[in-house]
Amino acid sequence: MGTVYTEITLKNAVDVTNSRTGIIKEQEIRRTTVKAMADTGAITLVIYDELRRQLGLEVLGERQVTLGNNMKEIVHVAAPVEVQWKDRKMTCQPLVVSGKGEVLLGAIPLEDMDLMVDPVHQEVTGIHGDTMLSRI
Question: Which domains does the chain have, with CATH numbers?
């Protein structure tokens, strides 16, 4: 299977809440649309530090991770971000790597939005078609 990319929109989740409660206007929500690699080997959303700063996400802590090459590294854990793929949304705390690199859309956000990587068509698609189904 080749590398599969998809477009996602990331929003500062605190800004989203502040907009809903009238503290800020909807157009003031810090957001960006990026091309993300759908990586089922990654646990969660992984962003780079420049993107964290652009979205205004606070660093909440650190976590040791194992990279794809089996090297261990300490990365930051950021404040929550809202992830949107088409009409599907979820919120998670992204892991933040230093430097500039690719955004990884990992297994938890994929599962939460009822998405899968279609190896035949090399795309991200809904597991249950256009209808999102959540498991509880």
Answer: 5-126 (2.40.70.10)
